[in-house]
What does this fold into?
Amino acid sequence: MPVLAGQGWGFALVLLRTAGMLATVPVLGARVVPARIRLALALLLSVAVFTGAGAPAVPPPDGLGRLALAVAGETAMGMLAGLAARWVVNAAGSDAREVAAMLGVDAPVDPVRRNLAFAPDPSGSLQLIPMCVDLDTGVLLRKEASGGYVIAYSNPNDVPSRETSVDPAFFEDLAERIGNRFPFLEDLPFDPGQCWAGLYPETPDHHAIVGAPPEAPRFLQCIGFGGHGIMHAPAAGRAIAELVALGRCETFDLHPLRPSRFAEGDLVVETAVL
Ligand SMILES: Cc1cc2nc3c(=O)[nH]c(=O)nc-3n(C[C@H](O)[C@H](O)[C@H](O)COP(=O)(O)OP(=O)(O)OC[C@H]3O[C@@H](n4cnc5c(N)ncnc54)[C@H](O)[C@@H]3O)c2cc1C
It folds into this structure.
């Protein structure tokens, strides 16, 4: 199994060919088309950080005064009224636009409802699989540690909203697409009580915004993570810590995520919205 990357970070990114995929995710069945499906062996960064596996430590801020406070929104505004903060971090998720506006910054982040379905596994198997994404349809699948399958699909035509009830249209979207790569799921009923929806903080190009805008150079934005914010959290936290502690991010090139890219019209739009 060729290891592509990541070893220095406490995880390994592995390329699986057909036999490896079927061994890792037997439920995929024989309809796997190797060139069109990628298995995200992906708890990667999270696992690396949560287990403390190898990521080098970020140097601490040079004194507590340097990092006066890193909170979002009204809390920050309330404290700013009485405190001098050298840095303020907007990490307000789907409320990021409103929080940014409090300091006169335009942050193009909108809340968009995303739904998850749950299908109990009648076999009772607790065997885990990596999160599997069918890039043909956008349907993705993972196994719950307690058993059963979590299935997601993000319809690119969904409009911004703060609605968090499960969208009935989501099940129709799934029904049309799920058989493409996961035909075994066509016969498994969903458990409505365990289906749920929440809000993605979406940006126009479906990439996060990390860094300070030119008009507010100490108002760091750490927002717009869409459906990747948990997976990106360790890296985002490191980036913000370095910006505060060092005044620059040494670990990552944050240029593609800079807040000014929208005004500059310099976007690389992600088409796989998961
Ligand atoms: C159904 C669903 C499934 C998902 N699945 C995955 C997944 O498998 N993997 C993954 O990586 N990501 C997933 N995500 C996305 C992930 O949840 C988000 O990207 C992530 O939560 C964003 O993190 P955040 O810290 O930027 O924002 P949030 O987690 O939304 O946190 C923002 C915080 O700011 C607070 N806040 C807001 N306004 C103010 C204010 N004015 N004052 C003070 N505090 C304020 C909020 O209360 C909140 O606690 C999923 C999301 C949904 C909805």
User: Anything to note?
Assistant: The chain has seven helices and eleven strands.
